[in-house]
Amino acid sequence: MWMALDRYFAICAPLRYNEHMSCSAFLKFVLVPVLRNVIFVLAVISLAGSLSYCQSNEIDHCFCEHMALVTLACGSIRINNILGLA
């Protein structure tokens, strides 16, 4: 992500490159989206882990997708569906 931002600012805003690539800008441009994604992933994992499963525990593909896992659950998956749309 840092390299992508570096190239973006070098091409699109070359006169303000040093300002954008300072340490405080790094925190603003990189850590905020990373923390948002970590919180989102932890919420998805905790919601999927709290469900009870009564059908087969096999998913039809080779990767574990959240909504494919949730469809195997017996109870209400309303909150998981709302979070999956976010």
UniProtKB/TrEMBL annotation:
One of its GO terms (biological process) is G protein-coupled receptor signaling pathway. It is found in: Membrane. One of its GO terms (cellular component) is plasma membrane. Keywords: Membrane, Olfaction, Sensory transduction, Transducer, Transmembrane, Transmembrane helix. Residues 1-86 form the G-protein coupled receptors family 1 profile domain. SUPFAM superfamilies: Family A G protein-coupled receptor-like (SSF81321). The keyword Glycosyltransferase does not apply. Its main location: membrane. GO terms for molecular function: olfactory receptor activity. InterPro entries: GPCR_Rhodpsn_7TM, Olfact_rcpt, OR51/52/56-like. The chain crosses the membrane at residues 25-48. It is a multi-pass membrane protein. This is G-protein coupled receptors family 1 profile domain-containing protein.
